[in-house]
Amino acid sequence: MSENEEKNIKVSYVPDDAGNHTEDPSAKNPEKKLSKSKISSIKKLQNKIKLQEKILKKTVEERDELQDKYLRSLAEVDNYRKRVKKEKEEFQKYILYDFLKELLEVFDNLERALKAKNGEHHEKSIISGVEMIYRQLIDLLKKNNVIEIKSLHEPFDPNFHQALSKVENEKVNIPTVVEVYQKGFMYNDRLLRPSLTKVAIPKEKDVSSVSKEEVITEDG
Q: What is the mean pLDDT of residues 37-47?
């Protein structure tokens, strides 16, 4: 080959490995650049985040469920309160219903007794009718736990008796009821009204006579 021919030859770049150019695999997959320990730490962190997300989701669901139960409980309590209030109002409104219904029977008998005054032997009929009504009324009071207070000849008790008058009596040692002006009654172990009474009290000794007796005793 001549020198002129060698000068005319152009030198071009010839790549290695028969012209095959390969890219760095780490350029497309950055994880390959990380160490195994870092990759493991990242995966653990991701798993931890997923677990916390599940816990948070469950907690939110439980919260919503509890809130729903709480609201329903409030509604039930409110309904119960309204129902009790209504029942209480109804009870107070008609508390005397049964008593008054039975009292009307006493009223009917009293009315019949008064009508009997125009007939024969009306005085006896009225007295008999009033006695029957009295017994009926006593039974009605007992049925409703209204009990008469025993007062006559009983020791005076200011818790159940009210003294309107008093009299000295040498036969009594303690204040004693000797007359009842108006009967007293108890209702379910509670004082409904006291008995109005006359009370006998022990007679006071004559001071002058006592002094004379003491003088005679001393002189004797």
A: 86
What residue ranges do the domains of the chain occupy?
A: 145-207
Phi, psi for 10 (deg, rounded to 5): -90, 130
Evaluate whether the domain defined by 145-207 bears CATH number 2.30.22.10. yes
Burial class (CB in 10 A: 0-12, 13-18, 19+), 125: middle
* Buried/exposed 191-205: b ≥16 CB within 10 Å, e otherwise: eeebbbbbbbbeeee
Helical segments of the chain, H only: 3-8, 16-19, 25-28, 36-93, 97-115, 122-143, 207-219
Residue 119 CB coordination number (10 Å): 9
Which among 177, 194, 174 is positioned nearest to 185, based on CA atoms? 194
pLDDT of 189 = 86
